[in-house]
Structures are given as C-alpha cells and as structure tokens.
Design brief:
The longest helix is centred in the middle third of the chain and has 23 residues, at about 200-220. This protein starts with 8 loop residues before the first strand and ends with a strand. Helix content is about 30%, strand content about 25%. Helix 3 (about 200-220) packs across helix 4 and helix 7 (about 350-360) crosses helix 8 (about 360-380). By secondary structure, it is α/β, with parallel strands linked by helices. Strands 1, 4, 6, 7, 8, 9, 10, 11, 18 and 19 form a 10-stranded mixed beta sheet that branches. The radius of gyration is 21 Å and the shape is globular. The structure holds NADP nicotinamide-adenine-dinucleotide phosphate (NAP). The site of NADP nicotinamide-adenine-dinucleotide phosphate (NAP) has 28 residues, from helix 2, helix 3 and helix 4.
C-alpha cells in the first residue's frame, strides 16, 4: 500500500500496490514521505482509541452567523440508554458542500441534525465513517463500521431504528422531521459502495457523485428542457459535484458542456478533459447569446446568475444545485426580477424516488454503483488523478483545514479528509 498519514498528501490510486513506497508518480515529489503504510498505522491508532474509548467527546463548532468563528469544545459522555449506540468517528471529508450546509443552516435546517444546545453555535454535518464502541441496541455490535452523516466531533450517540443487514435509521426525536436521506447509516460490511482501501474517496466523493448522477439523469429525463443541441453551462466547474456531473454528461452524445470557473482554476478544469470548453466567469460573451442553454448552478453567485439570465435569450432552465460562492449568494427574493426561467432548486430525493419507482430500487442502485465505479476509476487514474487526498489530524490541523476550505481558493485537486 502506498499511503501516509498525518498532514500528508496521498493519491488514493496509490492503494493499488503498483509502485514502491515513496515512488507513486501521482504524488508530487515535495509531498512524498517515507514512513509506515497508512492503513496499518491508522488502524493501530484507531484500535487504541477503540479499546480505550474516551469519556469525553470533542466537538468542532462554528458561530452560525460568522462561519469563521470556531471553537473546540469537550463534553463529558453520558451513559447510553437502552436502544442507543455510541460510535467513534474515524474520519470524514470536508468540502464546499459542507460549507454550503452551514451557509444554509437556518433556512434548510442543517443545524438541526446535531444541535449544540447553545444559541448561536452550530455543528456542521459531514460524511464519513465511524465504528461502534458501545451498543445497547440489538442487531448492532461493537466494532461494526457505518458510513453516514456525522457531526464534526470525535464521537456520536445514535438511536438506531429499522435495523437491517444494510444498516439503520437514526430515530432520535430531533431528526424525525428532517430529510430521510441524511438519517441513514450504512453497514460497511454489506455496502456495495464500500471498499476498505478507498474510504477517503468514499467520504469525499460519494455524496457528491450521487448528486452528479442524479442531475445528469434528471436533465436527460427532461430532454434537457429543449437544449439538447445547445449548451449546458456549469458554474464552479472545478468543484467535485460539477465535474462529476460533467463526467456523466460527457457520456451522452452531442451534449456540449461549458465549464465556468475562476481564473485560477481554468487549468485544472481543462486538465479534467470533461468540459467541451472552459471559460472564466467574465468570458460569457464568448458564447453566442441566442444559443439554447441550461444553467447548472453550483456557485449560487447572484451577480453571475443575473448576467447569465440577461445574456442568454434561449435559457431553457436554471437548475440550482449549490452555493460555493458563499460571499456572493443571492438574497432572498432576488430572483423575482430575473429575465427567463425562475431558478429551480434541484431536489435529489425526488429523482431517486421517481427512478426507483420506474426502474425498481435494485436496478437503480446497480446503475448508480456501476457509474460510481467508473467515476472513481477515472478520477484516481495516474499520472494526473483528479483527486489527491490530504489528511488532517489533531485539533489545530482540523481547524486550519476548515478555515482553508471556508475561504475557498485552495487547489481543487486536493480533497481534505479530517480525523477528529
Ligand atoms: N443539492 C444537492 O443535493 C447537492 C449535493 C452535493 C453538492 N451540492 C453543492 O455543490 C456545490 C459544490 O460542492 P463540492 O463539495 O463539490 O465543492 P468543492 O469540490 O469543494 O468545490 C471547490 C470549488 O468551489 C469554488 N469555491 C469553494 N469555496 C469558495 C469560496 N469561498 N469562494 C468562491 N468559490 C469557492 C471554487 O470553484 P470555482 O473557482 O470553479 O468557482 C472551488 O474550486 C456546493 O455548493 C454543494 O452544496 C449540492
């Protein structure tokens, strides 16, 4: 295995034992380290934590109204009540998606998943892996690993319900009214997505790629709203969700994909080979104004949206996915004055429900897993993988990683995985 722990970079393509340690061509020379293989070292550290579960939980919290203000807080663990499990959170990914959860924390209830109990402070949800350290729930054993939605914290207590071989649903009262998709925990031993060697990649790309898969499917299902012969415009083209979408769209004949990005990320977007064309945000005038188009908006940038709606007289659909440009998000009600179609929030669960009914749940899952495997194979391909994993452990290192992602402008090729 080629991989290293600590604040080091590693390509996950390197989990293939194809190159000697320290000589993976996918890892920049200045980032290579010698040292023990990461999986062994990580596993050893984790085993120590598992065997001596801490009596306190460390929480990373942010001020809801000033996302740059953060703190680490330690709380004493309470004894479990019947039916509960305690999990030790092993690792999770942090991307702009998580920052968007925070930016829309009030309006879309993301703060409610892991309430801090203190007004003004919130806990950002993340996707990752955790292992059961204590169980008072039948059907869930100590040592089992689950993929799912966790807080940025070292441990979490959940209240499993509807326990099946595939996993369970957290039945905690405060989560009952929240979207079901976030309340599911998947047993890694049964999960067709899971491979022990690609945990970091799963944390980073899985929730994003599922969205990408569904966006592509939704647009095709709607015949691209009449823009099959025209152009699909993708903002924040360097984001993982956008390039996952471009990856899916690129498999459809005749669909033109124009990636819009900031000047610093043009080279990265071009290097992916997924976009028919890559333009900076101020180069819209290079596209014909009368071309039929669909806007797939990952940036949520109000000013950019205005320009797109004003320029393209044949804008057929505005599909609102996210808000990576957290400092330039549209104010509430600001879309009323826009020419052209009203931006429509993409609701992934609706497309899952539709396809599961039409294709059957099993066939839907098979298609998704198949697409996922093709995507991660391509994304990890040397010599220039689309994603290089950077791990962070320790409180100071996690805080620094959060601040970097919040401020944007980092290398889009780096995927941050945090170990609380
Ligand atoms: N609706 C859904 O179900 C769903 C699901 C998954 C993701 N999403 C959304 O898709 C978007 C992309 O998420 P991701 O996790 O894939 O992102 P990511 O890979 O972390 O994206 C990084 C890119 O986002 C832009 N960016 C990030 N922070 C920024 C900042 N502070 N200021 C300006 N630009 C910034 C930059 O792209 P550019 O320079 O190219 O603009 C940057 O290269 C998010 O808004 C997320 O919420 C939605």
């Amino acid at each position: 295995m080629l991989a290293w722990d600590g604040p080091a970079l590693r390509t996950w393509s390197a989990v293939m034992p194809a190159h000697p340690v320290g000589h993976d061509p996918g890892i920049p020379a200045n980032c290579r380290q010698s040292g023990p293989p990461v999986l062994n070292w990580r596993a050893a550290c984790f085993m120590v934590r598992m065997m001596n579960p801490a009596s306190c939980t460390n929480h990373f919290q942010v001020r809801k109204d000033r996302l740059g203000d953060t703190r680490w807080l330690s709380t004493q663990n309470l004894p479990l009540v019947q039916g509960q499990v305690r999990l030790c959170i092993e690792s999770f990914a942090l991307t702009a998606n998580n920052i968007t959860y925070a930016a829309f924390g009030e309006t879309m209830n993301y703060w409610q998943f892991f309430p801090t109990g203190e007004a003004g402070w919130g806990c950002i949800p993340v996707w990752g892996f955790a292992t059961v350290t204590q169980s008072l729930c039948e059907g869930i054993a100590v040592g089992e690993k689950f993929y799912g939605y966790y807080p940025m914290a070292s441990q979490q207590v959940l209240q499993p319900q509807r326990v099946t071989p595939a996993g369970f649903v957290d039945g905690a009262a405060h989560r009952l009214g929240l979207p079901a998709v976030y309340n599911q925990y998947l047993r890694c031993s049964q999960d067709p997505f899971y491979a022990a060697t690609t945990e970091d990649v799963q944390s980073l790309l899985r929730p994003l790629f599922i969205t990408s898969f569904l966006i592509d499917d939704f647009l095709a299902d709607n015949h691209f709203f009449g823009a099959q012969e025209g152009t699909l415009l993708l903002s924040s083209a360097s984001s993982k969700t956008a390039y996952g979408t471009a990856f899916q769209l690129a498999q459809r004949a005749g669909i033109k994909r124009v990636g819009l990005t900031s000047p610093g990320n043009v080279a990265f977007c071009k290097s992916l080979g997924l976009y028919s064309r890559v333009l900076t945000y101020d180069q819209l005038d290079q596209l014909p104004a009368d071309s039929a188009c669909v806007y797939i908006d990952f940036a949520g940038n109000a000013e950019l949206r205005q320009r797109i709606h004003k320029r393209f007289s044949q804008l057929k659909y505005d599909c609102s996915i996210g808000g990576t440009h957290v400092d330039q998000l549209a104010a509430k009600g600001s879309t009323r004055e826009l020419p052209g179609p009203r931006p429509t929030l993409f609701f992934a669960p609706a497309q899952i429900k539709k396809r599961s009914a039409e294709w059957g749940a099993q066939a839907f899952n098979q298609q998704l897993v198949h697409a996922w495997q093709a995507f991660i194979r391509k994304a990890g391909q040397p010599p220039a993988p689309w994603l290089i994993v950077q791990r962070h452990s320790g409180q100071a290192s996690l805080k620094a990683a959060y601040e970097k992602i919040l401020s944007g402008g980092g290398d889009p090729r780096i995927g941050h995985v945090l170990q609380p």
